[in-house]
Amino acid sequence: MADQVIAVHWSDADLAVLAGGVGADGRRLPASGWMALRRLGWGAVAAAGVVVSDRVRRIAEEEAARALRLGCHRRAVVAALLATWPADPVARTGEEWSALRAALPEGTDNATIRNRTRQITAYVGVHGRLPAGLCELEGPPVVARQVSLAAADRQQVVVDRVDDRMMRVWSQLPTCAAPASYRDWVWHAFEVVLPAAVPAGVKVCSPTLRPRDGRVRVDLPWQTPHTPPPVDGHTRGLGVDWGVNTLLTATVADLDQDGSVVVDGRPLRFDATGVSARLVRLRRHREHLKTKADHLSRLRDGRPADAPADPALTGKLACLEAEHAAVCARIRHLNHALAWSAARWLVDHATAVGATVIYVENLATLEAGGRSRSLNRRLSGAVRGTVFTAVAHLAAQAGTAVVTVPARGTSSGCPRCGAAVTHVKTPQGRVAGYRWAICSCGLSLDRDHAAAERIAARGLANQTKTRRDRSGNAAIRTATDTPVRQRTRRPTPAATTRPVRDRCKTAPTRKQTRPTGAKTARLLPLRRQVPAPTDAPLRSAGKRPAGRTPQETNPPRTVRQVPHTVPTTAPRHPHRVRGAILGRGFHRHVHATPITHRDGGTGGMSGSMRIT
């Protein structure tokens, strides 16, 4: 029934009728729009002989209106691009960009412009002309198989909470695929086990049902009393930079009374290199399985129509598809776990240092430049959207504001003077890539750390420009860079204390020679004072003296010349797997800066954690 209601092919004329009230602002459709929607959508239902109530019709209209809002927005973007189509779409001039911005709907980001430009360019390359509109550029929209029960009232859906871990949903559902009368609609009750994330005592709302693979998944929202934190008036914030090699790099910044931004110079890193390496291997394995499955599908489809099916080919194809689905599920699980772990680490740091706002760069337009396929693959499969959603959710619980700032120029500019920086290799030289930034003003800093300082300065210096959109997300559209000043550190006792000379490593001089009978040093000797016994009876008679037995790396030549037999299947070391020690990494650890509170205590997440 839902497919018959929603699967309607909209034409340009229908979109033109409905575009008056279904714009990006989400206003309600006019009367003519609702009449056109019912004429197009419910005509198919009446022709099929399906009897539904007004509440079910509201659910279907809500789904159709959502698809229609998105279609109208895409139509406006495509129309603006076609009206201002340049001679070279890859390199627009300043006047062409100004004309395009004036014709585009308000709030259109650069990623949408780039993607739609590529779509139109591909159409021109195939057909040799520009498309007439959105309906010619792309096919009918695909609507998800879901039922939004929130669009109906209590005469259709009733939600009751049984206890802290269980809720019961009552809903009128048909007993057959095509109900012919209202007698085919009866009340159904199904119980939903609440996850541990749902707090006790909160109000649960009407869920959204998603049937798939013979099971029904429930999207359950709940309401908690919450006051949005203020978006301005902050004096301490946390600037966060999204990196390709390091997932998150943050720094703490303060706003002085004179309007300058001061940082402490301490970087906070959430390094997920191990998990990223595992994700890269899983993606390669997924692509390999997909290639093999496509090859077998072509072999199966290329057989003659009268030829019997090959059971071996069919079984192998089913095995590959099942393994491909399992690898995809594993990738989703790792991405989800990694995103929420990074978000929890970031919010805990902001709470520990007393920051009231978290400034992150706008991740919606992040895309790799150039032709690096490995970099594009890492960015395309990144978890930046999930990280931002998780940070916004956890920060709202902690009462911390999350504000996005423009990402342009955060890594290419100097946070001290604003000039262009030069990216070079790290001073150690052991890390691949150009991950160090230097400037003529004397700046020598990690490039992600420098970008985090500039993001924090943009946020704290442009608080008055923060605006909230319709969904409640706070963002700064245009920002002015402010120089960052580093706080002068007080010398620590360890830096002012005179270092103690190691007596074991210093050769004794004539003045340092002690007389016989003098006390020895308290430090343990580096080598044993008494040689270990070599006789078998002595070794078994008592304990050997303290100290470490020196290991002989090169055995004597006479021993190596003795003929001996080496087993072909020598046992491997029980604690080593492929050169990695279990418990010390193996591409599944996430190394993060420990969370240190202002009083000096350490708590929260440790420096190294494991994601399973």
Write the layout of secondary structure elements.
Layout: H1 2-6, H2 12-18, H3 31-48, H4 54-83, H5 94-103, H6 110-127, H7 134-137, E1 147-148, E2 157-163, E3 166-174, E4 185-193, E5 203-204, E6 208-212, E7 215-219, E8 222-223, E9 236-242, E10 248-255, E11 261-263, E12 268-271, H8 273-301, H9 311-353, E13 357-361, H10 373-380, H11 384-398, E14 401-405, E15 422-424, E16 436-438, E17 444-446, H12 447-461, E18 466-468, E19 474-476, E20 484-486, H13 493-496, H14 536-541, H15 557-560, E21 576-577, E22 580-581, E23 589-592, E24 608-610
Parallel strand pairs: 9-13, 11-20, 13-14, 14-19
Antiparallel strand pairs: 1-6, 2-3, 3-4, 5-8, 6-7, 9-10, 10-11, 10-12, 12-23, 15-16, 16-17, 18-19, 21-22, 23-24
Descriptive overview:
With 612 residues, the chain is α+β, with helices and mostly antiparallel strands. The chain is 35% helix and 17% strand. It is built from 15 helices and 24 strands. It has helices spanning 2-6, 12-18, 31-48, 54-83, 94-103, 110-127, 134-137, 273-301, 311-353, 373-380, 384-398, 447-461, 493-496, 536-541, 557-560; strands at residues 147-148, 157-163, 166-174, 185-193, 203-204, 208-212, 215-219, 222-223, 236-242, 248-255, 261-263, 268-271, 357-361, 401-405, 422-424, 436-438, 444-446, 466-468, 474-476, 484-486, 576-577, 580-581, 589-592, 608-610. Strands 9, 10, 11, 12, 13, 14, 18, 19, 20, 23 and 24 form an eleven-stranded mixed β-sheet that branches. Strands 1-6-7 form a three-stranded antiparallel β-sheet. Helix 8 packs antiparallel against helix 9 and helix 9 runs parallel beside helix 11. The longest helix has 43 residues, at 311-353. It is globular, with a radius of gyration of 33 Å. The chain starts with a helix and ends with a strand.
